[in-house]
Amino acid sequence: VYNSFPALIDYLPGSHHTILRNSDCIKKYVLEKIKEHQESLDVNNPRDFIDYFLMKMGQEKYNKQLEFNFENLLSSAFDLFGAGTETTSTTLRYGLLLLLKHPEVTAKVQEEIERVIGRHQSPCMQDRSRMPYTNAVLHEIQRYIDLIPNNLPHAVTRDIKFRNYVIPKGTTVLTSLTSVLHDGKEFPNPETFDPAHFLDDSGNFKKSDYFMPFSAGKRLCVGEGLARMELFLFLTNILQKFTLKSLVDLKDIDTTPIASGFGHVPPPYRLCFIPM
Length: 276
Prior knowledge:
Blueprint: H1 16-40, H2 49-59, H3 70-101, H4 103-116, H5 132-145, E1 154-155, E2 160-162, E3 165-167, E4 172-173, H6 177-181, H7 224-241, E5 242-246, E6 259-260, E7 264-265, E8 271-275
Helix pairs in contact: 1-3, 3-5, 3-7
């Protein structure tokens, strides 16, 4: 109904009004920060994403064909603030549930943390390349939970022929990420949580072209690098300092999502963090 009569959304009662108000509030906050950055910008000492974007806008201000403009800066910053926060927090919440369900996996991650980082040094991103098992676990969490099953809508930028089908320019395309992340040929027993999906016979981390939780094509998630960093640092810091304890028997832990629409949402659960 909304797609056919979008004007109705303003008159129908419901929680969507709260969502829209919250969205406007975040956009106003981002807009304030952009204006603050504009007033204090130092091209010789850029501080963050907004500064670099503003510098690029200045360099390309006479090129009307490029996309470095104020509107896209606001949209990109809003996406990083909103979409990045929700997806990363949900992945972490789901990841902790899977680690509760599989204590043998958690123990191996903690052993690797102890061996590579130790107890008293904080994990950093440089550690990830020396921690193949932990890296495999992080990849398997994202593969298994299949957070955004059908991706976000994309559009074809030109006429293209794909497998004997012609897709006209401008066609909206929905990519089934589930069909790739749960491909049985690439990942044996895809419905089973198993970090070995990303490990070779020698225990080294194994990349896979089928790992695409951040979308497909050139327009990948703009926050992919940020999300990878957050997931690694949050989980390694937690497991370095705490043992996870379930309040129910392991066999009673259900990892089936409670919602499977736009995204897969993990069921609510309780756990204890026991200091090590």
